[in-house]
């Protein structure tokens, strides 16, 4: 299964609470923090909703 490396690139200051919760659900807390997620429809939906705040790249499988 493909893995996605998701990195928070923009601050959450001044963003709506709903958007903050989505970013926190992805496991991101600080700017430039990266997390790995399996490529699934639910993760893709979260990425689509927060695409202006994060950077997404395909990661090598571990």
Q: Could you characterize what this model shows?
A:
- This protein has one domain (3-59): Ribosomal Protein L30, Chain: A (2-Layer Sandwich), CATH 3.30.1390.20.
- The termini are close together.
- The protein has a three-stranded antiparallel sheet, with no helix packed on it.
- The protein has two helices and three strands.
- It is an alpha+beta fold and 62 residues long.
- The model has no long low-confidence stretch (mean pLDDT 95).
What can be said about this structure in brief?
The chain has a single domain (3-59), classed as Ribosomal Protein L30, Chain: A. It is 29% helix and 27% strand. The protein has 2 helices and 3 strands; from the N terminus they run βαβαβ.
Task: Describe the protein's topology.
Elements: E1 3-8, H1 17-25, E2 34-38, H2 41-49, E3 54-59
Antiparallel strand pairs: 1-2, 1-3
From the alpha carbons, calculate the radius of gyration and give it in angstroms. Answer: 11 Å
* CATH hierarchy, class: Alpha Beta
The tally of structural domains comes to: 1
Estimated structural class: alpha+beta
Strand order of the largest sheet: 2-1-3
Average pLDDT works out at: 95
| Relevant CATH superfamily | Ribosomal protein L30/L7
Helix content: 25-40%
Q: What shape does the CA trace take?
A: globular
Secondary-structure element order, as H and E? EHEHE
Task: Specify the biggest β-sheet.
Answer: 3 strands, antiparallel
| CATH architectural designation | 2-Layer Sandwich
